[in-house]
Amino acid sequence: MEISVRHFIYIYQMRNSINKLTILCIVLFLFNSCNFQYSIEKNRRSIIGCYVIDTSKTYLTQKDKINLSTLELAFYPDSTFSISIDTPYFYDTVGYWLSGTDDAYDYNKMYFGTINKKYEDINFYSPYVENKDTIFLMSGTMPKQNQKGLGKIFFKKISCASTPKTTKR
Question: What Å distances lie between residue 39 and 4, 42, 62, 101, 134, CA to CA?
Answer without folding.
Answer: 51, 5, 39, 5, 18
